[in-house]
Amino acid sequence: MQHLDFLSNPDYLTSTIAQAGLWGPLLYIVVIMISVVISQIPGAPLAIAAGTIWPPLLAGVYTVIGGFSGALIAYALGNRMGQPLIKMLTGKTLSFSTDQGESYLGWLIFTTRLLPVFSFDLVSYGAGMAGLSLPVYASATFFGMVPSTLLLTYLGNSFHLSGWAIASAAILFGVLFIALPTFMHRYNWLNLQAVIRWD
Fold this sequence. Notes:
mainly alpha, two-stranded antiparallel sheet, 3% strand, globular
């Protein structure tokens, strides 16, 4: 069962990567890719853990490489295999509407990457399943995930800093990753519920 602990437990990840030496970054990138493709593995705690292992900017680069690569894999799987695969991997039935046009969907994906209103992998599978243009999807995903990823890795790095830095990072994290997404989902900002549905 240790391989499952590695994928889902940030503490175990931290110790394993620290012992991996030069292979650590590659191992971490692969784990992040898997966490995007498989819904049950949370990605945010892994990014925070990376910020405790490496300098936050470097940890952010590794996380973006892994997350973006995983998002492209999920997009391709959704595009080629559709709803049965999504149901098998995530346990959810997903619908992703393109009625409002690709430009709107691009901005919507950018927003959901910037503020994690919906699961990273569900949006990736849904965009692929709906046939959203790859350039639109890829650019919205990349530019949306960079700020939130860096925030997570800097949050992890702040654990090495003073108490006020930890408190400030925790407040910022709470506002951007909990409060704003909750309000966006509850009050249907950007008409999200008409575009992305799952059950």
